[in-house]
Design a protein that fits this description.
Elements: E1 29-33, H1 36-56, E2 61-65, H2 72-85, E3 92-96, E4 98-101, H3 111-118, E5 130-131, H4 142-155, E6 161-164, E7 186-189, H5 192-198, E8 211-214, H6 217-221, E9 226-230, H7 236-244, E10 262-267, E11 280-282
Parallel strand pairs: 1-10, 1-11, 2-3, 2-6, 3-5, 6-9, 9-10
Antiparallel strand pairs: 4-8, 7-8
The protein binds 2-amino-2-deoxy-6-O-phosphono-alpha-D-glucopyranose.
Length: 283
């Protein structure tokens, strides 16, 4: 007789404080996956579910999107769902977290290029509904540009969902240590460590722009739902501080402890300093 084992899907639905573990040391609902691929697929499924729910209600779905290596597999899965399962993005409006400054859209290191390469070129989203901070805005126009970016998010009724990665400095978007929690979309000077880490994508450290434009902490915190995805050993200390550490602008991701619907999905490597106390283990 043939026995087939059907692996149960990991439940990543949000559980408020006190309801996801018996002994609570971590201050945000988190799930540790043995396989980062599964985590990415679960994120893509949740995004697809939200898009379809809004479609049924004839409403727009406003997504906050991220760049970096962490979300690549999520976008790949969304593209697959579009091609194979008919997932449509016609009711979707997107706002990206950040962009280098200055940065040409055609530069392959731009987040504009990244998003089109990994997602927008392969789905049926209306290009008018895609918003990515413009790295070509001149210095005397950035303040007005940032205010307008913020206004556009508000005009669409705010972000329904925000996808996040995390930098080793604890940055979310490009909100580096010291950024005030009250910040809205603004220009930031990048942390030296961030430039060093991201230099791997450029020919040299000097080529990494010194500035960026990013949604502020407040913009991110206003999102109705947040999912942070982190993989790899290099993120384990940042994840530990995000979940256990004091809430301080010195470690921007710590602010997520105050969000009412935030979840953190990690692989074993990124969650290695949490395992003893984890509420959900998807192994
Ligand atoms: C960049 C982005 C962040 C992202 C971070 C992590 O710095 N501005 O939004 O979270 O990279 O990237 P990765 O997922 O490649 O580690």
């Amino acid at each position: 007789m043939k026995t087939s084992i059907v692996k149960k899907k990991t439940d990543i639905s949000h559980k408020p404080i006190g309801q996801f573990e018996e002994t609570r040391f971590e201050k945000i609902h988190n799930v540790i996956f043995s396989d980062s691929n599964e985590a990415s697929i679960r994120v893509a499924e949740e995004i697809a579910e939200l898009i379809r729910k809004k479609q049924n209600q004839n409403r727009t779905c406003v997504l906050g999107l991220a760049t970096g290596s962490s979300p690549i597999r999520v976008y790949e899965e969304l593209v697959r769902m579009h091609n194979e399962e008919g997932l449509s993005f016609q009711n979707v409006v997107t706002f990206n977290l950040d962009e280098y400054l200055p940065m040409e859209k055609s530069n392959i290191q731009s987040y504009h290029y990244f998003m089109h390469e990994h997602l927008f070129n392969h789905i049926d989203i209306d290009p008018e509904n895609v918003h990515i901070p413009d790295g070509t805005v001149s210095p005397d126009e950035t303040v007005a540009y940032c205010i307008d970016y913020e206004k556009k998010i508000k005009d669409f009724g705010g972000l329904d969902f925000q996808l996040l990665g995390i930098g080793r400095t604890g940055h979310i978007g490009f909100n580096e240590p010291g950024n005030p929690f009250e910040s809205r979309t603004h220009v930031v000077k990048l942390h030296r460590e961030t430039r060093e880490v991201n230099a791997r994508f450029f020919d040299s450290l000097e080529e990494v722009p010194e500035y960026s434009m990013t949604m502020g902490i407040k913009t991110i915190m206003r999102s109705k739902r947040i999912l942070l995805l982190a993989t790899g050993e290099k993120k384990c200390e940042a994840i530990r501080k995000t979940l256990y550490g004091p809430i301080t602008p010195d470690f921007p991701a710590s602010v997520l402890q105050l969000h009412p619907d935030c979840r953190i999905l990690v692989d074993k490597a990124a969650g290695q300093l949490l395992e003893m106390n984890s509420g959900t283990m998807a192994v």
